[in-house]
UniProtKB/TrEMBL annotation:
UniProt-recorded name of the protein: histidine kinase
EC number: 2.7.13.3
GO CC terms in record: plasma membrane
Ranges where the HAMP domain occurs: 194-248
InterPro entries attached to this UniProt entry: HAMP_dom, HATPase_C_sf, HATPase_dom, His_kinase_dom, HisK_dim/P_dom, HisK_dim/P_sf, Sig_transdc_His_kin-like_C, TCS_sensor_his_kinase
SUPFAM superfamilies in the record: ATPase domain of HSP90 chaperone/DNA topoisomerase II/histidine kinase (SSF55874), HAMP domain-like (SSF158472), Homodimeric domain of signal transducing histidine kinase (SSF47384)
Organism: Hoyosella altamirensis
Single GO molecular function: phosphorelay sensor kinase activity
Length: 472
């Protein structure tokens, strides 16, 4: 397969050659038409001049009875030829009865025809193209009317071959100029296209180098110009920056997930092995060990649940909406939050409305927000969950009075693998807010997070589509 650097100049040269060939052909046709038009105008002027001269002479030599004799006509023709012996462009032919009069000094190409009086007449009046032994002729003819009758005809004839020869010579020169233009233009196009495509070659080489995601450090040299190719190179480098960041984030995430899974498994295994190799009948010790193992299993289950939620986020059955009465939903939510042993969490009574949502996914999203706020704020932080409903939306708002989220993290905080600041004794995989965002999107809603140094607010906004709920 030929590279774009070869194909584009060839295509451009072919288009240029076709355009030049078409231009040459059109110029040839135009020159032919202009040459014939100029000849027609010369023939018509000569015919008009003869007609006027014949009329003036005949009027001056009219018989006393008003009749113009045949002798007068012949004398008028001879007088005209005496004053206008000929031209190198045309030949004037006058036919009066059986007599034929021609210009004394005809064009060189028509001399033989003139001497032999072998000029073919027109079939009618007006312009015609005639074939003759001297080549193709262009002729205009008009009748000579005397005493109300047609006494003969006046014909002016010009040769078309000189025009054709001149046009053909012009065609040769046009062809030479077109060939020179093709060579110089094709060379210039090739140079310009090669230079223009240089960033694309660099881009292709960089794309091949980074195609398997093994080496994301390569970048396309940034061209100085700010055209489409320059913008493409810049955006490609930005894409590589994002890919490199995403790949690094994914690598870090896999390491964190491995750590998250390995840590509770190690803890649970250690306690069960302690029971196995150090048998005891102390109920309190057994209960303590069971609680630790259960806590670590719950930790693994939460991680798996978040991973599973992200994996299914784009599937149509990710959520199963049903009518959800907010008062009962909040009571269940309070019970589940208490089971997570989150301190400093206040859940305020919601408005008495029913919404169409997936209670399991919605509960997962809100608990993730509460857990996220508890993990990423210092002890003693007050976390509040409220709900508001208006004519269009229902909003679930989690606020805290913690130190806030750094502005550098706020833009991407809902992306997978992104983690905010947290105390050292906590760990996070950076999936919580990503799961919340996907659940909100699946409900045709959105997650908005705002933060200042005095606190953070996370709002899940869902379309209402609600009806009043029965009193609690």
């Amino acid at each position: 397969m030929k590279s774009l650097r070869i194909r584009l100049p060839l295509i451009a040269a072919a288009i240029l050659a076709s355009s030049l060939a078409l231009a040459v052909l059109l110029a040839y046709q135009l020159l032919s038409l202009v040459g014939q038009r100029d000849l027609d105008q010369a023939l018509q002027r000569e015919l008009n001049r003869f007609t006027l001269a014949l009329t003036e002479y005949s009027e001056e030599h009219r018989e006393p009875d008003g009749v113009i004799s045949a002798e007068t006509l012949r004398n008028a023709v001879n007088d005209y030829y005496r004053l206008n012996p000929g031209s190198d462009t045309y030949l004037t032919v006058i036919r009066l009865g059986n007599s034929v009069f021609v210009s004394p000094a005809p064009p060189a190409q028509l001399t033989d025809l003139s001497d032999r009086l072998a000029i073919p007449p027109n079939a009618g009046t007006g312009f015609e193209t005639l074939d003759s032994q001297a080549g193709t002729l262009r002729a205009v003819q008009a009748p000579i009317t005397v005493n109300g009758e047609t006494a003969g005809s006046a014909q002016v004839v010009g040769a078309l071959d000189p025009i054709s020869d001149q046009t053909s010579q012009s065609l040769v020169w046009l062809g030479i100029v077109a060939a020179i233009s093709l060579v110089t233009g094709g060379t210039a196009l090739s140079i310009v296209i090669t230079r223009t495509l240089a960033p694309l070659r660099d881009l292709a080489a960089t794309a091949q180098q980074t195609g398997q995601l093994h080496d994301l450090d390569a970048r396309v040299p940034q061209p100085a110009r700010r055209d489409e190719i320059g913008i493409l190179a810049e955006e490609f480098n930005r894409m590589l920056d994002r890919l490199q960041g995403a790949a690094q984030a994914q690598t870090d995430f896999m390491a964190r997930v491995s750590h998250e899974l390995r840590t509770p498994i190690t803890i649970a295994r250690g306690h069960t092995e302690t029971l196995e190799y150090s048998p005891t009948t102390d109920p309190r010790r057994i209960q303590h060990t069971a609680a630790i193992v259960r806590e670590e299993i719950d930790r693994i289950a939460g991680l798996v649940e978040d991973l599973f939620a992200l994996a299914r986020a784009d599937q149509p059955n990710f959520i199963a909406p049903e009518p959800v009465a907010l008062p009962q939903f909040f009571r269940d939510l309070t019970t589940r939050a208490a089971g997570l042993q989150l301190t400093g969490v206040n859940i305020l009574p919601p408005p008495g409305v029913t919404i169409n949502a997936d209670p399991t996914r919605l509960s997962q999203a809100i608990l993730n927000l509460l857990r996220n706020a508890a993990i990423h704020t210092p002890d003693g932080t007050i976390i509040t969950l409220t709900a508001h409903a208006d004519a269009h939306d229902v909003q679930f708002i989690v606020t805290d009075d913690g130190p806030g989220i750094p502005s550098a993290l706020l833009r991407d905080i809902t992306e997978p693998y992104v983690r905010g600041p947290r105390p050292p004794h906590h760990d996070s995989t950076g999936l919580g807010l990503a799961v919340v965002n996907e659940i909100a999107r699946a409900h045709h809603g959105e997650l908005r997070i705002t933060s200042t140094p005095s606190g953070t607010t996370a709002t899940i906004s869902l379309p209402r589509r609600a009806t009043p709920a029965s009193p609690a």
